[in-house]
Amino acid sequence: MNDCIFCKIIKGEIPSSKVYENEKLIAFNDISPKAPTHILIVPKEHIESSACLSGREDISGAVFNAVAHLAKELNLENGFRVVTNCGRDGRQSVPHLHFHLLAGKELSEDM
Ligand code: 5GP
Ligand code: ZN
């Protein structure tokens, strides 16, 4: 999508601090981190949100393979949180599917 900020990051039109990439997705550091490790895992295909993931096990599988890869590479043995916000009530601010990988401190009990 032309005016999508994450599509622009994927195309390299907006810089990002990339930590991982494969043919299906890219992962980069969140510009406004909520934890010492705050990575966004973003499918390259413009999919609006997790509400559109039915039947897309290729995407969900790739995302959680990337989570496992990053957890190992970044030594997140104390644990981590994976969050995807969806729609208005879910407080999704960028309408291109992404998963927050949060780690590096004991996270709040509140989701
Ligand atoms: P959401 O609120 O949609 O779940 O999460 C969007 C996330 O994208 C936020 O945590 C926000 O800080 C991050 N973000 C928004 N614009 C940019 C950007 O241009 N670069 C990076 N690296 N992160 C961004
Ligand atoms: Zn997009």
What are its keywords?
111 residues, alpha+beta, HIT family, subunit A, five-stranded antiparallel β-sheet, 2 helices, 22% helix, globular, binds guanosine-5'-monophosphate, binds zinc ion
Explain this structure to me?
- The protein has 111 residues and is an alpha+beta fold.
- It has a single domain (5-57, 64-103), classed as HIT family, subunit A (2-Layer Sandwich), CATH 3.30.428.10.
- Helices cover 22% and strands 22% of the residues.
- It has two helices and five strands; from the N terminus they run αβββαββ.
- It has helices spanning 5-11, 57-73, and strands at 18-21, 25-29, 37-43, 81-83, 99-103.
- Strands 1-2-3-5-4 form a five-stranded antiparallel sheet, covered by helices on one side.
- β2 (25-29) and β3 form a beta hairpin.
- The radius of gyration is 13 Å and the shape is globular.
- The model has no long low-confidence stretch (mean pLDDT 97).
- Bound molecules: guanosine-5'-monophosphate and zinc ion (ZN).
- Zinc ion (ZN) binds next to α1.
**What is the general shape?**
globular
Our Rg estimate from Cα atoms comes to 13 Å
CATH class: Alpha Beta
- Helix percent reads 10-25%
Measure the end-to-end span.
30 Å
CATH-level-2 architecture: 2-Layer Sandwich
Mean pLDDT: 97
* Biggest β-sheet description: 5 strands, antiparallel
Structural class determined from secondary elements: alpha+beta
Strand order of the largest sheet: 1-2-3-5-4
How much strand? Answer: 15-25%
Distinct compounds present:
guanosine-5'-monophosphate, zinc ion
Uncertain runs are: none
Q: Count of DSSP helices?
A: 2
Give me the count of strands: 5
**Could you please say which CATH topology applies here?**
HIT family, subunit A
The number of domains is 1
